[in-house]
Amino acid sequence: MARRKDAVVAALVLLAGFALVAVAARDDAPGTPAGLRPGLAAAGLPEMRAARRRGAARHRSEARAVARVLRRRTVIRRGSRREREIALTFDDGPGPYTRAVVRALRRGGARATFFPVSSLFRRWPRALDAVRRAGFAVGDHTVDHPYLPGLSFRAQLRQLRGQARALRHHGFPRPRLMRPPYGGHDRRTRVIARRLGMLVVMWSVDSGDYTRPGRRAIVRNVLRGARPGAIVLMHDGGGPRAQTVAALPRIVRALRRRGYRLVTVPELLARRR
Ligand SMILES: [Zn+2]
Fold it and tell me: Distance, CA 145 to ligand 1 centroid (Å)?
């Protein structure tokens, strides 16, 4: 009897071992972007591994959507007008307001796209972490935020490639989107973006939040321009952004009440016809 019990226990231990090996093998499967959420990789909890797999799968499908658009064009200002979807975008972080922006978005059930500047990464590591943990889309906004058309080809390449490297170094997937600082781009910028496999993302609605016109004006600017497929320019860095943080819950609520889903730019493009 004791021997049979031992055999059952041994079988169970073996089974558990096989299950663990199977899970580990799936996690190491090729195609899982290396460096994606290193914090989660270290944790062994099954739900964390599942979240990591979901993140990797989502990133692959978003990368496909961007690649499809890149076959036809280099610059976009909006997504499909047929879907009731809007993409909020946040430039110039990370900074002291980034975490409040992420919190407001998550509370409202909204997803968004961030275009941070890597020269600030060292100073605001927790803000950058919050963006990564939220699983939002992140694009290239250069290393130092220069006006690109004033720079040589090599200097522009350095700015864009340097930022892409910094993002990967900090556990983000390779950026597929780039937003030129001040919206300024020339032919060289577009050639470089294509070479690096990045889509230039402009906007169709300017929240005007960088002029600090007050919370109500920011809400009004966004709602006035809201259309299916809109891409909205906002800022989580580059100056005091308390007004942006204050406006955000109202913007999210009002847009959702009008039946809009708030998605990332790659999600917006995935539905593009
Ligand atoms: Zn900027």
Answer: 6
DSSP labels, 183-196:
G---HHHHHHHHHT
Mean of the per-residue pLDDT values of the chain: 86
* Distance from Cα 50 to the centre of ligand 1, integer Å: 34
Q: What is the pLDDT of residue 102?
A: 98
The residue type of 73 is R
| Residues 6 or more apart in contact with residue 26 via CB below 8 angstroms | 53
Dig out the tokens for 148 from the structure. 């690109």
Residues in the chain: 273
Which residues belong to the active site? 91, 235
Alpha helices in 28-97 (DSSP H): 38-42, 46-70
Q: Are 185 and 153 in contact (CB under 8 A)?
A: no
CA of 237 to the centre of ligand 1 (A): 8
